[in-house]
Amino acid sequence: MLTAGAMAVTGLAAGRAFAALPAAPLAASPVRPELMKRALAALQRHSGKIASRDVIGIADFSKHSSVPRFHFVDLASGQTRTLLVSHGRGSDPAHSGMLQRFSNDFGSAASSQGTYLTSDIYVGKHGRSRRLVGLDPTNSNAEPRAVVVHGAWYVGPEIVREHGKLGRSEGCFAFSETEIEQALARLGTGRMIYAEKA
Hints:
This protein is α+β, with helices and mostly antiparallel strands. It contains five helices and eight strands. Strands 3-2-1-8-4-5-6-7 form an eight-stranded mixed beta sheet. It starts with a helix and ends with a strand.
């Protein structure tokens, strides 16, 4: 359940964004309450920089990469949809499927924890992708490190079936190539992504 404070952070665009997309399954399990609490605290802390506070993204990196763990939360309705997402190879050197560590360092190829602001869409080597700005000291290098949201062939249920885990990114939030447009649309410019493990 979302708190009353969370319900107050709403907007009409969220409903339109969710309604305009193909039906997606509801999350198999709700966002962990303590993770939601930290994400909402981050939203409040960075409210001056996050223009659209209707839909937020929460990456729960405490979960194995074979499990859907990126939550799209509509704060108006409380509806949550969850997709598979990769983590950085520098965060999981043994490729166990579990994120072992975060890093904000250049050349680390690791995922970074903290609060991100979604920026503009561009077309790069992974097709349509969305730039991110790190808002915390733990992910302040996101933009110069080119940590973005993009699609990747190594993310998807077929990869999980074959390998028991997803492939790894260079620290980016990589979604299935069949689901990347949903991810880009749900988290338009000016929204928040919160990534955490604990």
